[in-house]
Amino acid sequence: MKQFAPLTEAPEPGGFRIQKAFCNILHSIEDFIVRSHTAKKNCQFQHQVTAVLLVLLVSSVDAADDWATIRSTFIANHCAGCHGGQPSQGGLDLGHLNFDLEDSESLEKWVRVYDRVVSGEMPPKSEARASPDETRRFLGPLADLLFRADFVKRTSVLRRLNRIEYENTICDLFGIRVSLKDSLPEDSTVYGFDTIGEALSISPQQMELYLRAADQAIAQVFGADRAPPKVAARMPLGLDPFASREIGGIFMKTEDDSLITFQGMYCPTQFLSGKALVDGTYRVQIKAKVYQSKSPLVMAVYGGDVLVGRGPVHLVGYYDIEASDEWTIVSFDDFLQEGDCYHAKPYRLIAPTQGDNRFNGPGLMIGEMSVEGPLEAWPPVSRKSLLGSVMPQSAGIDEAREILTRLLPRAFRRRTSQDEVEPFLALVKSALDSKRPFLESLSIGLKAVLCSSEFLMREEQTITSPKDGRVVISEESLASRLSYFLWSSMPDDELLAKATSETLSHPDELRAQVERMLNDPKSERFVENFTGQWLGLRNINFTEPDAKLYPEFDELLRYSIVEETHLYFREILDHNRSLLEFIDSDWAMLNERMAIHYQLKGLKGQAFQRVSLPKDSVRGGLLTQASIMKVTANGTTTSPVVRGSWVLNNILGQPSPPPPPNVPAIEPDIRGAATVRELLQKHRNIQSCAVCHNRIDPPGLALECFDAIGGWRKDYRTLSAGKVVDLEIDRKRVEFRIGKPVKTNGILADGRKFNDIRDLKKILMEDKKQLARNLAEKLFVYAVGRNVGFSDRTAIMKIVANVEKQNYGFRTLIHEVIQSPLFRKK
User: Fold this and answer.
1) Looking at the DSSP assignment, which residues form a beta bridge with residue 232?
2) pTM here?
3) Residue 583 to residue 604: CA distance in whole angstroms
4) Do 681 and 754 belong to one domain?
5) pLDDT value at residue 35
């Protein structure tokens, strides 16, 4: 796992230099290309300039050092044996690979060649090794050509707001709360993220959905014509019409009309009397206590269409109910849609029989419940904010002009001219001329704003930097790039004001604004969206664990494993802890359910807290967290190939190429007759597979000590062959059996050995710069919306060098990415 050398570490052959004047021409051409792209014209000329530039570069090199001969000789002597025809190892056939660096696929493959040679991985030790002089003569010209070919390609393209950004922007623009993202199509993911420009185009079909979403948002902005009806329900749960109809059996009512339930599966404790009459935020209070037990219980509360089950249901939270004669009072504010209500029930409480009033086991007593709301003011604050002092009853075209003039700079995230207001104002005027009411007429103009390209697309304007004369994005575009990076939404008023005064890009001001934004509650969107894609947490429910193999998996564990990772990431971010702690740490963020899952004692309650881990614990760091283990498993079995690939790509930034199309995937033996290690060994006997699997499999094998839900294991679980297990979970005897033992030792491709995950983490920590480099690149790709290219490597390594001097602080890394010139490059 040697890191790929950056461009600055590439050897240069003697005498290989392109004249300084030519480099100046190169930068001038780059500036022209950026300007012409921004102006949305001269696209054909841009293409022609790129082609001519590459021809000139290749001609210059050929004339200087006979580069074509050097290249062909090096490949023939040191590469062709494995990569000289079909079939070729690693899917790389250098015998038929042209040197057209204008072609993106060809450029990418030559970058792979450069990386493998400069790292010493290729040629393999078993083949004839090139002399240092041969390597320098091959790599030096190749590095320069790759740099310049990539340099003219690296431009962030015009891109649409993804659906999460769209919803957040609408909500922040108007100060409303409305769910829109689920009514829009899922966004495509490129390079691991859904913020990439090349994948965020827009189609006519999508525009229809945006038109509907705009209607929904505008209706929320204006609110109802009159004050909405309010709910003020307060009563013992036993008197609720729905709950009281099923009293008896394992649902009992006390003398004070509280309801006792001994069951947490089907539980008729929905509070129908507190049903929401309109969309809004509601204040809820629930009184609960433990019945017939000296141990605390956990109460789960759900909100939504909990009665019928046809609509969405969300988890409000899990709450500890103390074993006491006093009521535990649970209070929260939560958003409901019209017709929704709340459902409180005990977590994982199962009565042994149905219809036994004399059951003496533990139960949950739910007493008085209250729901009041909606809490939002009427008229809505959003309406008052939009209209200002305008009175709709007497308003006309002048008032519409005033409103749109105030709105457009915030909607478009930049200063706007009066000319830009006129097309939207014309729509309002046409409606007013047709005798339509003012708010209805204004809504037409607002809808056009929300469906305009200036709102839906993130078009970044460019300027010439007064500092060095380079073309960079404008201050206002910088504000947007910053806000969509850390907030997944539009800039707020302070950020736009700094951009308008052209002080945002000053290093001290930029640092201060980043600190303010990271400390803002909206930065939780960065935590959720970045970890959701970098670590794959968005796929947490993509597979369902096999209930027979993993009967201990439940809803509280499903919630807790994601919360652990979010809070762990947040802890490192908030306290500027070392990014190396993403690999290993002596602490974790846990609640009681996670502590039970991790076989740790002494932690009580479902509130998360920072916990010191026992010495020599297998836990600590992302690679040991249950969320990561679950998203890299299929719910039934684990695969070292999947997990190894995850480590290479997400942690080291050294992904392997996809497998050849004619090689079948490994099918694990769920009967337990053969372990996955044994199956992989047979797979590696195929020569075309061995090269990649020697890199992929070892880190995955070290993670085999964790099962498909992240529990630690010594042996595999099976459903047929194996030792019978004497264990009950939820009053049911488990069906799984104990299969063959798990072996976690291995040898990395570079020869380093490990016995288990603890050893692997130590090995990974030896490559500190590569860990920092990978995370810097991930942050950059997510923030800027394009992939990191060969020409970006020097800037990335400068970021890494600066972070290294500051103990690899993760918050420091974010600052360095934002302060880098790369962050302001188009």
Assistant:
1) 372
2) 0.87
3) 27
4) yes
5) 41
